[in-house]
Amino acid sequence: MTDIAAVMPRERRPAPAFRLGPETLTLGILAIFVATISLAPLGRLALTAIAPDGTLDLAGTWSVLARPRVFTAAMNSLYVALASTLLAVVLGSVAALLTVHGNIRFKAAWVFGFVLPLMIPPQVTALAWVQAFSPTSPVLGLFGLAMTPGARHPLFSAGGIIFLLGIYNAPLVFLTVRAALRRLPANLAEAARASGAGNLQLIFTVLLPLARAGIFAGAAIAFVSAIGNFGIQAMLGIPARFPTLITLIYQQLNSYGPSGLSDMAALSMLLSLITVIALGLSNWLGGRGDVRVEEGGRPAEIGLGRWKMPVEAGAWLYLAATLLLPLSALFATSLVKGFGQQLGWDTLTLTNYVNALFHHASIRDAFATSLLLTVTAVLLLSVISLVLAYFISWKKGALVRLIQMAAELSYVLPGIVLGVAMILFFLRPLPLVGFSIYGTVWIILAAYLSNFLALSLRPLLGGFSQIDRSLEDAARVAGAGFFQRMRDIILPMLAPAVIAGGIIVFMSALNEIQVSILLVSSSARTIGPMIVFLEEGGSSTLAAAVGCLMILIVLALMGIASLFAGRLPKGALPWRD
Amino acid sequence: MVSIALKRITKDFAKKRVLDDVSLQVENGEFVAILGPSGCGKTTMLRLIAGFEQMNSGTIHFNDEIIASPEKNLPPEKRNVGIVFQNYALWPHMNVEQNVGYALKIAGVSSDERRRRSLDALATVAMENFAGRAPADLSGGQRQRVALARCLAANPSVMLLDEPLANLDVHLRASMEREFSDFHRRTRATMIYITHDQSEAMALADRIAVMDGGRVMQFARPHELYREPRNEMVARFIGNGLVLPVADLQRGRADGTVNVDIFGHRSEVRARKDQARLAGASIGVHPDDLKLADSPAEGFAAEVERITYRGSHVQVHFRPRHAPDLSLSLHASHDRRVSAGDTISVCVGDGWVIPEAA
Fold first, then answer.
1. A198 close contact with B: CB closer than 8 A
2. Which terminal Cβ of chain B has fewer Cβ within 10 Å, N or C?
3. ipTM tops 0.90
4. What PROSITE patterns does this protein map onto (chain A) (predicted)?
C-alpha cells in the first residue's frame, strides 16, 4: 500500500496553484496551433481588408466594393445562393418526410442514392451535368432529347447554377430535417390524427413546425455551402459570363497575382459578412418558438395508401434523373477519344484512364499530392480533435471556447476566403525557418487543417457526450495520468468516432476544390482543381476520366466505412439510413 | 488505511455556496455515511476528498498530512483513494480482470502478480469465475461487485462509495447491503459512503453525518440520530420525525427527563442532562410515538379531520385543539372506531427536547 507520507512532500510550503502539468501543456499547444492555422490568418485577412497599408482605410475598402462589377457579382452570389437554398430546402424536406414517415420500400438504398451527390466533388458533378446536356449525351440521345449542336448550353446560366447547387445541397437539408423529424415521438402525430388531421394537415401543422429548427439549420448550411461552392460556380458561371464573388476573387488572383491581394481581402470580407449574417439570421429564425418535445420512441408512420406507387416511382425517378443521367454522361465521355464523339464499339477506348493514371505526370502528381495531404491531415486532425474534444466536453473554460469558436469559424467561412487568408498570412517567410511556404504543399496542408478541424471534431463531440465522465474519474483514482488516460481509456472508447471523423475528413479533403484553388502552384497541385484546369484547357475527356476515378475512390471509401458502420456512433456516416 | 480530517471546508460553485464551513473527522477503519437530501453537498464532499474539485477554503488531511488546501492540491491520481461509482464506471473495452487490475498496471505491478491480486480481489466478492467476461455481459449486482473488487485491488487508503446501491432494485439492494457490511468487517477499510437513503446509512455505518444546505447538521451514531436529534432538520429527516412545540419546561422525575406542556397536557420527555428550564421549546417525536389515549386525562385533546385506511391499520389525521393550524397524524388499530369530526385524546409515548431549537 502506498504510504501517503511518501507521495506527499514533507514541507508545508504552499505550491503555486498553477502548475505546468501535462494537461495545461497540451491545452497550450492546442491554443497555439489553432491560433496559427485559423485565428491569425483570418485576423490578418480582416486587417488587410480594412487597413491594407497598416492604417485604417475604410474609404479604400469602400472604393473596392463600390465598383459596379463587384456589386453585380455580390448580387449574383446572393441570388444563386438564396434561390438554390430554397430548392434544396424543398427537395431535402420532402426527402426527409418520405424516409422518416413514409413507408416506401428499399428505403436504405434510396437514402444512399439521395445523399451520394454530396460525396461527389462539386466540380465533377458540374462536369457530369455539362456532359449530360451536351449534344452527344447518351441518355438524352436515347430519348431523342439531346441538344442540337451549336445551341447555347442550358446549364451555362444562372438557372443552371441554381439547379445544380440546389440538387447538390439538398442532402445537407435532408440530414438536418431528418434528425429533427426523428426526435418527434409518434404520440404527437397520433394526437393530431385523433383530432382529425389528415396526412397533409399532419405534415403542415405538426411535423414541419416542430422540425423548424432542423429546416432552418439545414437552410443555413445549404446557403453557406452554395455561396462558397467554387466547383459549380466556376464550371458553369465562368463560361456563362455570370460573375459571382467567388469567381471574381479567383479571376482577381489569376489576373493580378498576389499584388491584387488587398482587393481580394476586401471581397473576401464581403463574402464572409454575407455568410455570417445568413447564419445569424437562420439561427434567429430557427430558434423562435418552443419546439421542445419528449424525445424517444419510433417516429410516426404515414400510410401513403393509393399514392404509394406514384410516390415511389417519383422518388426513384428523381434519383435516376439526378444520379444516373449525369454520371452516365460523364462515364460515356471518359470512354471516347475526343469530346463530341458518340460512344459506340468503334469509339470505345480506355486511353483517357491510361493517360490519367500513367502518362500525364501532372495528374499523377496531383493524385499523389492529394493523397499525401489528405492522409497527413486525417492523422493530425484525429489526434488534435480527440484531445480538443476532450477539453471541449469535459474541461470547459474561456480558452477552450475560443479555440472551438475559431475552429467553427474557419469551417463555415467559404473555403476560398480561407485560401486568401492563408496567402496573406503565409506569404512572408516564416520567422524561424526563413522561407515562405506559399506555393508549397505546406500552405495547402495548413488550410486543410484549419478548414476541416471542426468537421473531424463533430463525431468526437458526439462520442464524448455518450460516455460518462466517471469512466475517466475511475481511471484517475486508479492512478493514471493524463496521457495514460488518453491512451488506455479515452482512445479505445472513442476509436469508432475517431474513425468516423477521419473518413469524413478524408472524403472532404480529397473532394475539395475551394480551399486549394488559390493555393495550388505548378509544383504543388491537388486533384480537385485539376478537373477545372483540364476542362479549361479543353481536355474534356481526360477531365471526365479523372472525375470518374475520383467517384470510384469515393465509393470505395464509403464501402470501407460502411463495413465499420455497426461500431460507429449513429449518424456518423451520413449516407446510412 | 488512514484517518481523514476535513477542516473548515468551504466550496462555492458560481457564487453558490455548496459546502459551508464543513468539518469532519473520520477515524482509521471507520465506516462513515454521509446522508442528506439531494443538493445538500454530499457528492461535492466526496469529489473534494477524491481530488476532482478544489475548495475555496479549508484543508483536507490524510493521517495529519495536508493533501488539499486552496493553495495546493494533490491530484486524484496521486491520492490513492478508491471510488465505487453510482453507475459503476466499469470500462467497457476491458474485461472484468483488466478492469480490476488496471490500477496495478499503472503502478507497474508485474503481470503475474497483477493477475494474482486481481483474482484475489474478485474472490472477495465471489466473482473470480467471471474474470474473462465483458462488463456489458454482467447483471447490475455483478457489476457492482466488480466495481467493489476494482476498488479493493488498488489497495486504497480510503474507499469512497457514491450511492452505490441507487441503481439496483430493492431485492438486490438488501443483499448488497449485507455484502458491504461483511466487506467492511473483513477489510477494516476506512470507508465513506454517500447516500440519500437513511435506512441504508443506518444499517451500514458506524457513524452518520447528516448534511443539509452545505452544512453538517449532526455527526453521530445511528441510534443517537434517531433518539437524540440535535436540531429540527435532523429530527424531521430521520425516521419521518415530527417536531411539536412545547411550553413550560420543568425538571422531570429522573435525570435526563423534563416535564413539558404539549398542547395543554403535561408529559415527561427525554432531554439533555443539562437542559435548562425554558418557557418554550420543540420536541422531536416519531409517528409511532403518538397514540390514541384511553381517557381524556391521558393526552391532549384533538379533532379528527379524516381517516385513511392503510390495511394493517388506519391513519388518523387530526388537529390539536390548542394548535388548530397544525395537521398531524397517528396510526390506530381497527378496533378503535374513530371518524371525522370526533374529538380524541392523543398521548406522546416518547419525545426528545431538541437542543438547538430550544
1. no
2. C
3. no
4. ABC_TM1
